[in-house]
TrEMBL record:
InterPro entries: Cytosolic_carboxypeptidase, Peptidase_M14. GO terms for biological process: proteolysis. The keyword Protease applies. This is Zinc carboxypeptidase. Residues 179-425 form the Peptidase M14 domain. Keywords: Carboxypeptidase, Hydrolase, Protease, Signal. SUPFAM superfamilies: Zn-dependent exopeptidases. The active site is at 395 (proton donor/acceptor). Its cofactor is Zn(2+). It comes from Colwellia demingiae.
């Protein structure tokens, strides 16, 4: 997209601020703590500090239905923890194990998720062979020896088989398709975000299985316009979460730009829409086997219905939805947008915003993919049709460098705020 857009320089009147990214997120081997849980139940309702809640739903403490284990008495493979998954596991020889991954339903987007722990009575070299039933592998394995830092695990791909040689020891190690960001991680992150601030975290409602769906809000005294941030409709799309965190942190920071922005715009963040699917390690779906990002027409699922009801309630109170971003992952970095001629207000707003991002990041190629499919039931179409505004699906590549994901998020959030505060005419190219 370099030089493809003739975006004008965006100036923020009366505000001279020097912007710099916070310390960039470290690479996979040194990422910020991403905790895996050892318990059989999801503890996302049991926060470590009190949360401001509208109500506290009863949480159905279901152990992970996809948990399996296999052992020869000396070596054990288990997936009985939040976000754990290996649908079939068996010992096939001396220190050799086979894992089969099975989707929760078919047809389904090809996103085979797996996460399991390995432990041995003494240091033992083992071989693990993984296959996907009716599909192929998407995610190269990552390993964590402390539940916090992650690095790529070496492997071989032979046809449909993914083969790993791993050193098992009395200290458990976790192998997963991506870094594990479970439900409790979101609660802890939000609590740190809102600590000593005016932002609030509360429960929007309960998921299909009764898990809380949290929302974070920043409300100004003299504004009725809302920016909406959504995340984790699809459980394995972890790089979308890794982008959402710094993006939101930038919008809700103590920078002069953010303070100025939050005086004009309210922000609603629902970072984990599908807690049941995240807990179960689903490939795509919620607990009912439904793709939530195909349900924004029918609202057949409680998760999407809760959000629609809340947004419609805001509008009924005289509030206005101004813009929305939905974070996802796919094989490459891409921004799915609405066409400039679709009829939403500020037709060229997204092109101005992302065009400036493209200009300011010469080593990152910003790819826009405009599209319009009213029958598909995706969130960006919903926002455009229901509220007449732009919305985008912000996709980070599965294997995009984690430092790069963070720097893109910080830069895009800062440019977004400048764009929304500027006096540039977004109805013109």
């Amino acid at each position: 997209m370099k030089n493809a857009l003739n975006s004008s320089t965006l100036l923020l009147p009366l505000l001279l601020v020097v912007f710099s990214c916070s310390a960039p997120q470290k690479n996979i081997e040194n990422t910020a703590p991403i905790l895996s849980e050892d318990t059989k139940t999801d503890t996302s309702a049991n926060v470590y500090r009190p949360v401001k809640e509208q109500f506290k739903p009863e949480v159905n403490k279901v152990s992970n239905v996809n948990s399996q284990s296999c052992s020869d008495g000396k070596v054990k493979l288990t997936s009985d923890f939040a976000a754990g998954r290996m649908d079939e596991c068996k010992r096939t020889g001396e220190n050799e194990y086979s894992i089969i991954l099975v989707p929760e339903n078919t047809p389904i987007n090809s996103s085979p998720w797996y996460a399991f722990k390995i432990q041995a009575e003494q240091v033992t070299d083992i071989t693990i062979t993984m296959k996907v039933r009716g599909d192929k592998h998407r995610y190269p394995p990552k390993i964590s020896r402390d539940g916090k830092s992650w690095q790529l695990q070496s492997y071989q791909q032979k046809g449909e088989r993914l083969i790993m040689k791993v050193k098992a020891s009395p200290q458990p190690v976790t192998i997963a398709a991506q870094e594990i960001i479970n439900n409790q991680y979101y609660v802890n992150w939000a609590e740190e975000l809102i600590e000593e601030s005016a932002f609030t975290q509360s429960i929007l409602g309960a998921s299909t299985q009764g898990r809380p769906i949290y929302k974070i809000e920043s409300r100004g005294e003299n504004t009725n316009e809302w920016v909406v941030i959504l995340g984790r409709q699809h459980p394995p799309e972890v790089t979308g979460a890794l982008a959402l965190f710094p993006f939101v942190e930038t919008l809700l920071s103590n920078s002069e730009l953010s303070k100025y922005f939050l005086r004009k715009y309210n922000v609603l963040v629902i970072p984990n829409i599908n807690p049941d699917g995240v807990h179960a390690g689903n490939w795509r779906s919620n607990a009912n086997g439904k793709d939530l990002n195909r349900d924004w027409n029918d609202f057949s699922q409680i998760e999407t219905r809760l959000i629609n009801d809340y947004l419609q309630g805001l509008v009924a109170q005289g509030q206005k939805i101004k813009f929305a971003v939905d974070f996802h992952s796919t094989k490459n970095d891409i921004f799915y947008t609405m066409p400039v001629d679709y009829g939403v207000e500020s037709s060229y707003f997204v092109r101005h915003w992302l065009g400036e991002l493209d200009r300011q990041m010469p080593n990152f190629n910003v790819v826009l993919r405009p599209g319009n499919n009213p029958n598909l039931g995706v969130s960006k179409q919903y926002f455009s049709d229901q509220f007449g505004v732009h919305a985008i699906t912000y996709e980070m590549g599965d294997n995009t460098d984690r430092t790069k994901i963070k720097s893109i998020a910080y830069k895009s959030a800062n440019i977004l705020m400048i764009n929304m505060l500027s006096d540039v005419d977004h109805e013109k190219e």
